[in-house]
């Protein structure tokens, strides 16, 4: 029995179809496939070919989730430094430096 190896195009189609189903109602199938193809280009030459299916699925799903969050107004990631209030530290007599 001979097993035909899957090509990168086959993997892109398979991952694109699976993610298009997962993101139904948020993105068109064409948009999902576009994200998958872009992710595949970014992974090209960076990983071993045997890992393409899993890594492509993870990267494309992550990008689609972030796009979905961005379009629905959900903030993800690290907050900007400007969103924090920094208060000066109060120095008491006990914590004052010696000689100062």
Task: Kindly describe this structure.
The protein is 51% helix and 0% strand. It has 100 residues and is mostly helical. It has a domain at 28-74.
Q: H/E series, N to C?
A: HHH
- The computed structural class is mainly alpha
Which whole number gives the mean pLDDT? 82
End-to-end distance: 84 Å
Name the beta content range.
Answer: under 5%
Shape by Cα distribution: flat
Largest sheet: none
Please count the helical segments. 3
Q: What's the short version?
A:
This protein is an all-alpha fold and 100 residues long.
Summarize the SSE layout with pairings.
Blueprint: H1 8-22, H2 29-43, H3 52-72
Helix pairs in contact: 1-2, 1-3, 2-3
Protein traits:
mainly alpha; 51% helix
């Amino acid at each position: 029995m001979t097993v035909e190896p899957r090509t990168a195009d086959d993997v892109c189609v398979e991952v694109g179809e699976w993610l298009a189903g997962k993101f139904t109602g948020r993105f068109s199938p064409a948009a999902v496939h576009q994200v998958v193809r872009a992710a595949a280009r970014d992974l090209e030459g960076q990983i071993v070919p045997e890992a393409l299916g899993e890594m492509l699925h993870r990267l494309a799903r992550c990008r689609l989730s972030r796009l979905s969050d961005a379009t629905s107004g959900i903030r993800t990631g690290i907050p900007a430094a400007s969103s924090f209030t920094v208060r000066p530290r109060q120095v008491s007599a006990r914590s004052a430096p010696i000689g100062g």
